[in-house]
Amino acid sequence: MIRFTEGMKNLEDEATFFSLSSEYLEAAETLNKIPPTKVNYWIITYYLLGHSAELSLKSFLFKRGMSLKELRKIGHDLFELLDKAKNHGIQDFNSIRSLSPIYKSKKLEYRQRNIESFPPIDNLILEVKELHLMVFESISYF
Q: Would 90 disulfide with which of 4, 16, 85, 127, CB 3.0-4.6 Å?
């Protein structure tokens, strides 16, 4: 059993966000390499990439002074997170932007009969990796 002391309540910081982002990115890359058999993991791969991008952007913005309250208010809106990060020097990412409406509305978490347009998975992976590297270079002194 894990017990938290009074001083450990606020464990979320840029390092925590970034570490989780790395794990989601690695899981997405691993799933993307598995050839589809009886189960196709493509929707899960998109979710993992969206979550990795979200956590990377939140890590970056937290390090730039945004509070956890502000980040929680933005929620899962990759579009808004990218806009705020651009104000601090992060470049824009078209594939991450095009995933934003699907990711924000949780359409990757619940099966729906809607027709959606997804960015090419290879482009999205490259963008999330590039974002991840940019964020790492800006917070790596933690």
A: 85
